[in-house]
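To: structure desk
From: M.T.
Subject: fold request, one chain
Message: Could you run this one when you get a chance? Sequence is below, nothing fancy, just the single chain.
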Amino acid sequence: MHCERVYFYAHPEQALREVEWIHYGRYLDERIKGKPTQYITRRQEFFGREFRVTPDVLIPRPETELLVETVLKLRPALGTFVDVGTGSGCIAVTLALEVRGSGYAVDVSAAALRVARHNASAHDAGVRFVQGDLLSLFADGVFDVVVSNPPYVPLRDMTGMQREVRDWEPHLALFAGESGLAVYERLVPEAWRVLKPGG
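Reply: Done. Structure tokens follow.
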């Protein structure tokens, strides 16, 4: 119906038109098959802002807001930052907006970067996007902050996961080898390399 939730409370008598029933039926069928609601509506709230999400990106979790809060406490006046494995761009966009600054966001997935660019544009956030593997494209000592919510799920845990996650969210953003530490083992040394002294 393309209206805010409050509209439903104010107009309980309004019936759905035929085309709206058709869409509702299609969305209900997708949800029954396990498709996450966020992929159906193509949006997820994060840090008080709405972000576009597609099956090309991990759905932002409320727990990830803690990562943003921690960065803001540690570095309230962010200099140059980089968000590694940006996905939807929710971390980079939020940091840029909260500190009224700019930064970089990197992801190996071109499809994820398209979603992140849309979100940055929608929020008018000063984020530059780079397609690459972790921090390999950046010079030594250029960032004040490196932030990331990388894949951390061991492959052996795949079978026990909720089907909404296992069957719909991008495996590239979820799984990190047999131990779950494969990305961290590469990211931490690269982060030290690109951080400025005291970063």
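Reply (cont.): Strands lie at 43-46, 49-52, 81-84, 102-107, 126-131, 145-148. Let me know if you need anything else for the meeting.
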